Amino acid sequence: MKILVIIGTPHKGNTRAVTDLFLDEFRADGADIEEIVLPRDFGETCLGCANCILHGEDKCPHHEKVSFIVEKMRAADLIITATPVFVYSCTGAMKSLLDHLAYMWLVHRPDESMFGKIGLIITSAGGAGVKETVKLLKSNMSYWGISSVHKFGVTTMKMNGNYADYKDKDKIKRQVKVTAQKVRKSVERKKVGFGTKFLFGIFGMTQKNGWNKTDSDYWKKNGWLDGKKPF
Ligand SMILES: Cc1cc2nc3c(=O)[nH]c(=O)nc-3n(C[C@H](O)[C@H](O)[C@H](O)COP(=O)(O)O)c2cc1C
């Protein structure tokens, strides 16, 4: 199994610790793991030109750096997005990367390789905001075309805590094992779900009279307006 971890913080804290618990599980299976640490590997903020959506992703001022990450996403069976909760959301660094990937939402130009991939979202919060953060990341991964997205959120009740000191760390370890097993099963099945297929169909209809020529040309070129499917 090839795994790409996109972790939205360089901080070696709770999110890192929980992510490492998962990676230990997958390493034991012989997984091949690559990591993007934000903002170290991508620190750009979207400038709002919308060139990616309107004129092609290669027209983004940060194209080279974005495509470096997209290539790694394409190669992975499992994409892990991990982030602490900052003001009820993901970190700014994670959000900046997500913004740069708007062009590949199903409504625009989905990347064929995303269909059948598996997602895993890992979040850690001091007290509240896991639900909201997971929702944001889940929307992004689902709209990239990933049907099967697993979630793992922890509430630490500690700012700048050290996971190793947590009284419920054994419980977290057990929960990680259970979720890791579900992820493995999904990776074996690589299923494209009904919801994804349905949305692909709906967005395909809108592309027939598309308002954005770059998007509709892309759907046409792929044969998706003539009945061909990416899954
Ligand atoms: C700028 C900032 C904003 C935060 N906002 C929230 C929040 O909205 N809700 C919450 O429960 N914890 C919040 N926290 C606490 C962190 O989510 C929590 O400590 C998390 O486990 C830190 O992860 P890390 O150790 O991987 O950096 C915030 C922390 C920081 C630094």
Topology, element by element:
Layout: E1 2-7, H1 14-28, E2 32-37, H2 51-55, H3 63-75, E3 78-84, H4 92-100, E4 118-125, H5 130-144, E5 148-155, H6 169-189, H7 194-208, H8 213-221
Helix pairs in contact: 1-6
This protein binds flavin mononucleotide.
Flavin mononucleotide binds at residues 9, 11, 13-16, 84-88, 124-129, 156, 159.
Quick summary:
The protein is an alpha/beta fold and 231 residues long. It contains eight helices and five strands, in the order E-H-E-H-H-E-H-E-H-E-H-H-H.
Task: Kindly describe this structure.
By secondary structure, the protein is an alpha/beta fold. The chain has a single domain, classed as 3-Layer(aba) Sandwich (Rossmann fold), CATH 3.40.50.360. The protein is 44% helix and 15% strand. It is built from eight helices and five strands. A five-stranded parallel sheet has the order 2-1-3-4-5, sandwiched between helices. Helix 1 packs across helix 6. It is globular. The model has no long low-confidence stretch (mean pLDDT 95). The structure holds flavin mononucleotide.
